[in-house]
Structure formats: C-alpha cells, structure tokens
Amino acid sequence: TEIRCQEKSRGGLSYEVILAEPAPNVAVPKRPVTPGKNVSVEEIEQKLKAAEERRISLEARKMAEISIKLAKVEEATRKKDEITNEFITQTKEQLETKMETHVEKREAIISDMKEKLKIHAQEIEKTRETLEQQKANEQKAIEEKLKTAQALRDENIKKMLNRLKEH
C-alpha cells in the first residue's frame, strides 16, 4: 500500500491511497476435522439428564425471580394502602377537629348574641317602664291642671253670677 498527500487548496489536503495488486488465490485455512466419536446410549442419556436438570434449574431460578418481584409488588401495594389509609384517617381527624371548633365558635357566637339580646331586652323593658311612669305622672299632672282649671272656671263663673246678681 502506498499513501500520497497533496495540498490542493489553502488548508485543504488531498490523500491518494494506492492498494497493492490482489494476491493470487490464497487458500483459506479450514477447520480441522474432528474425528467422529462413538457416542454410547449412556452418554446420550447423561447429557439429556444434564440438559433436563439445567432446564429445571433455569425454570426454578426464573420462578424465584418472579416470586421475588411479586413479593416486592405486593409490599409496595401494601405500603401504598397503608399510606392512603393513614392519609384518610389524618384528613378525617383534621376535618372533625375543624368541625368541632367551628361548632364551638358558632355556639359561642350564638350565646354571645343571646346575651346581648337579653341585655337589650332588659334595657328596652326599663325604658318602657320609665316611659309608662312618665306618662302616668304627666297624666296626673294634666288631670290636676284640669281640676284646678275647672275649679278656677267654676269660681270665675260664681263671681260673674254674683256680680250679675248684684248688678
């Protein structure tokens, strides 16, 4: 083989590879022929038994791997179920506590409102009683004024009648 290098352009190289002429027919080495064995029935049976044992051990190994994988899947499923159940119970407890606090707050608000309304009703009752007393006092004062006015009128009428009689 021969390799020639030429610079065709700036920064560019060109390679020319010349291979040697092909060699005349070369014989490819053949595998040596193994002499034929005389195989007995016992050897064939031993080989078949060995093959059967290998096949059985391979199946057993595969079944063991599958059972291990199934065990892992079952364990993962169990853990997932436990986590889900734990989450459900925690959420349920949180909701129950929230509901309890809500009910307590609501009852406190209602009792506070009832107390305020009770106080307000008492104040209204006191105000009503004082207004009734004032009304009664005013009515008495008006009646007394009417009586005094009637008495003065009667007296004035008597005086006028006396004057008329005297006149």
Automatic annotation (TrEMBL):
This is Stathmin. The keyword S-adenosyl-L-methionine does not apply. PROSITE patterns: STATHMIN_3. GO terms for cellular component: cytoplasm; neuron projection. PANTHER family: STATHMIN (PTHR10104), STATHMIN, ISOFORM D (PTHR10104:SF1). Belongs to the stathmin family. It holds the Pfam family Stathmin. GO terms for molecular function: tubulin binding. Keywords: Coiled coil. Gene3D superfamilies: 6.10.280.30. GO terms for biological process: microtubule depolymerization; neuron projection development; regulation of microtubule polymerization or depolymerization. Residues 41-155 form a coiled coil. It comes from the Eukaryota.
